[in-house]
Design a protein that fits this description.
The complex is a heterodimer. By secondary structure, chain A is an alpha+beta fold. Chain A has eight helices and 21 strands. In chain A, strands 6-7-8-3-9-10 form a six-stranded mixed beta sheet, sandwiched between helices. Chain B is mostly helical. Classes of the chains: A alpha+beta, B mainly alpha. Bound molecules: adenosine-5'-triphosphate and magnesium ion. Chain A: Pfam families: ABC_tran, OB_MalK, TOBE.
Chain lengths: 373, 292
């Protein structure tokens, strides 16, 4: 049964169409993450689901009930806002129980719910404080507590962690994951943070300009992106896009990369990853997508990909991050970033022999930007 | 002590001294009329005609105050301004309360429940702040007549409420604009409705702007003369009108001390309000947004 189903939802603000026929369905207990650049309509979609803004067209169903024209209160939804939106004049306890009070839950039950939630989020000691007396992380917990006190069909989180510092964000991320595993709640969650998206989601929806470009598991979205935008949006540092020319024929496709001041480089495209679409592209320019981790050092035994395609390049920038080293080097018409082990000893200007794992590379049409193979 | 580190040269200190002297002088200048009124109001008549304006009273007396309150003639009657003083309260209190409540609801609706044309409506209401009173005197008299409220306190209350709403709406709208809309969204999701959200979420954070609205309305309505003189009868006149009548009633010697005492009585409530709540007034006007 779908906990939440959105069918062809459209939203116009004046003449501007912000949501363009968005459709998606979420199973009960699923954790869906919405990602996309600023202004693509994520918050608008959340507000539409919550009933805070009427949609222009389309249908929204929650727990198999048409809620398109129901008020927010009637929808059985709880939402955590980026700004937390705690009621400033109420104590934490009152904040958490307000929703229950409005729904005429008896006092004893309300108190039990507050205890349960406070226990779960470890905010029992804060119950009698006002929001102004809490730190950012504590406010965030209270905001979650307010949502968890009721047990609605769907939880909406609009960038709940973006106001926290990096360390706290990681802690809360883990905690949200644990909560989800423990409570089995259905969650729609908006974030800008790649890692949040990859670690929390059962499925990720990548949005752009009011469309959902791709809806899939984190693995699908990361390794099998439908187009250049999705490929570039997910992952940090992001995927390298290299202009190449496709040569050869079915069974023996090759990619020719011309780098200024170097010999042309020819990379064979693995036969196992051929698609019929490639045939029309022979002789034309296609875009090769390689993630930084698709590169490895020539003699690295750790990476376990000895059969990668060898490649040599002049390193222009070396950026150690601690856990590994990011190398920049010119390849084709662009600078590419490669991620190598922390032990790699290379100085800017030196040549380095690398291997690239073509088995995980992706190809895009240079005009439509769509995935070719 | 203020939190500033200053130069401590002789020149700097002298400049500072000059600055304070100038400020003190300006303050005295502004206080002078009040001081003259106060001094005159407790002087017997013969001292006034004999001495200078600023001379302190030789034998201070409260007789002029008592007379102003209870016996002085305001036109045909000689009952002092006391009764009119209470009249003013009977007009001001409901008018302030109603216009503040309506302004708060307007501001809330205009910011948190926007509807098509709400900005235009607000613009039109703002216009109400700039309408000269004289323009509406005749139509208002006509309207009060139709409503059967001519010359009544209720009629004056209505007039003041209507005029006050433009200002109170402006105050509350500008205050509520800064309150995060997400608070209201959260409350909607929690199941609260229009009035519940107002009562439980917004009103508890509105104290600063309520103070502003009450002080503003109180002084405006208390000090009003034009509406008071135009729309009241003998027994419903506010104290400002009575004061004018008292001063203009000429029977024999002019009793400056009684005039001054009556003026002090008429001005006292607004003075008290400023002294007691003035700092909240400034605080409310400069209050920042509410953090959720
Ligand atoms: N009330 C509104 N009136 C007019 N346009 C609006 C309104 N709300 C949002 N928009 C427009 O809709 C588009 C999508 O906004 P939305 O807030 O959904 O973006 P978002 O994906 O949540 O961005 P962010 O990641 O920055 O939060 C933006 O171009 C915005 O300007
Ligand atoms: Mg947003």
């Amino acid at each position: 049964m779908s906990a939440l189903e959105i069918q062809k939802v459209r939203k116009d603000f004046g003449n501007e169409r912000v949501l363009k026929d968005v459709s998606l369905a979420i199973e009960s207990g699923e954790f869906l993450i919405l990602v996309g650049p600023s202004g693509c309509g994520k918050s608008t979609l959340m507000n539409a689901i919550a009933g805070l803004e009427p949609v222009t067209a389309g249908e929204i169903r929650i727990a198999d009930r048409d809620v398109t024209w129901l008020t927010p209160a009637e929808r059985d939804i709880a939402m955590v806002f980026q700004s937390y939106a705690l009621y400033p004049s109420m104590t934490v306890r009152q904040n958490i129980s307000f929703g229950l009070e409005m729904r005429k839950v008896p006092r004893a039950e309300r108190e039990a719910a507050v205890e349960r939630v406070a226990d779960l989020l470890q905010i029992t000691a804060l119950l009698d404080r006002k929001p102004a007396q809490l730190s950012g992380g504590q406010r965030q917990r209270v905001a979650m507590g307010r949502a968890l006190a009721r047990e609605p069909a769907v939880y909406l989180f609009d960038e709940p962690l973006s106001n926290l510092d990096a360390k706290l964000r990681v802690d809360m991320r883990t905690e949200i994951k644990k909560l989800h595993l423990r409570l089995g709640t259905t969650i729609v969650y908006v974030t800008h943070d790649q890692i949040e998206a990859m670690t929390l989601a059962d499925r990720i929806a990548v949005m752009r300009d009011g469309h959902i470009l791709q809806l899939g598991t984190p693995d699908e979205v990361y390794n099998d992106p439908v187009d250049i935008f999705v490929a570039g949006f997910m992952g940090s540092p992001s995927m390298n896009f290299i202009a190449t020319t496709l040569e050869g024929q079915a069974g023996d496709y090759r990619l020719r990369i011309v780098t200024e001041g170097e010999d042309a480089l020819v990379l064979p495209w693995p036969a196992s990853r051929e698609t019929p679409a490639l045939a029309e592209q022979v002789g034309r320019s296609v875009i090769l997508g390689l993630r930084p981790e698709h590169f490895s050092e020539e003699d690295s035994r750790l990476s376990g990909m000895d059969e990668g395609t060898p490649l040599s390049a002049r390193v222009s920038v070396v950026e150690p991050t601690g856990a590994d080293i990011l190398l920049n080097m010119p390849l084709g018409d662009a600078e590419v970033t490669a991620r190598v082990g922390p032990k790699c000893r290379v100085a800017p200007g030196e040549r380095l022999s690398l291997r690239v794992d073509m088995g995980r590379a992706v190809l895009f049409d240079s005009e439509t930007q769509k995935r070719l193979a | 002590m203020d939190n500033v580190i200053r130069r401590r040269t002789l020149g700097a200190r002298l400049a500072r001294l000059a600055l304070y002297a100038a400020l003190l002088l300006a303050a005295l200048f502004y206080l002078l009329p009040l001081a003259v009124m106060l001094i005159t109001s407790v002087k017997p008549l013969d001292e006034i005609s004999a001495g200078s304006l600023l001379a302190l009273p030789q034998s201070p007396t409260l007789v002029p105050w008592a007379k102003a309150w209870g016996e002085a003639c305001t036109g045909m009657r000689c009952e002092g301004v006391g009764g009119y003083f209470w009249n003013s309260f009977a007009i001001v209190i409901p008018a302030v309360a109603i216009s503040t409540v309506v302004g708060a609801l307007n501001g809330y609706a205009l910011t948190k429940w926007r509807f098509r044309g709400s900005e235009l409506l607000f613009g039109l209401m703002l216009f109400g702040c700039f309408i000269p009173f004289q323009v509406v005197l005749l139509p208002m008299a006509q309207t009060l007549g139709w409503l059967g409220l001519s010359s009544s306190r209720a009629g004056l209350v209505l007039v003041h409420v209507i005029f006050g709403i433009a200002f109170t709406t402006l105050f509350f709208r500008n205050f509520y604009v800064a309150v995060p809309t997400e608070l209201v969204s959260a409350a909607k999701l929690d199941g609260a409705g229009f009035f519940r959200i107002f009562w439980r979420i917004l009103l508890p954070v509105s104290a600063p702007i309520i103070v502003v609205s009450v002080i503003w309305q109180f002084t405006q309505i208390w000090n009003d003369f034009l509406f008071g003189v135009a729309f009241s009868a003998h027994d419903t006149q506010p104290v400002t009108v009575a004061l004018n009548n008292l001063v203009n009633t000429s029977t024999g010697v002019r009793e400056y001390n009684v005039d001054m005492a009556a003026a002090m009585i008429a001005a006292l409530p607004t003075l008290v309000v400023y002294v007691l709540a003035g700092k909240y007034f400034v605080r409310g006007l400069t209050a920042g947004s509410v953090k959720g």
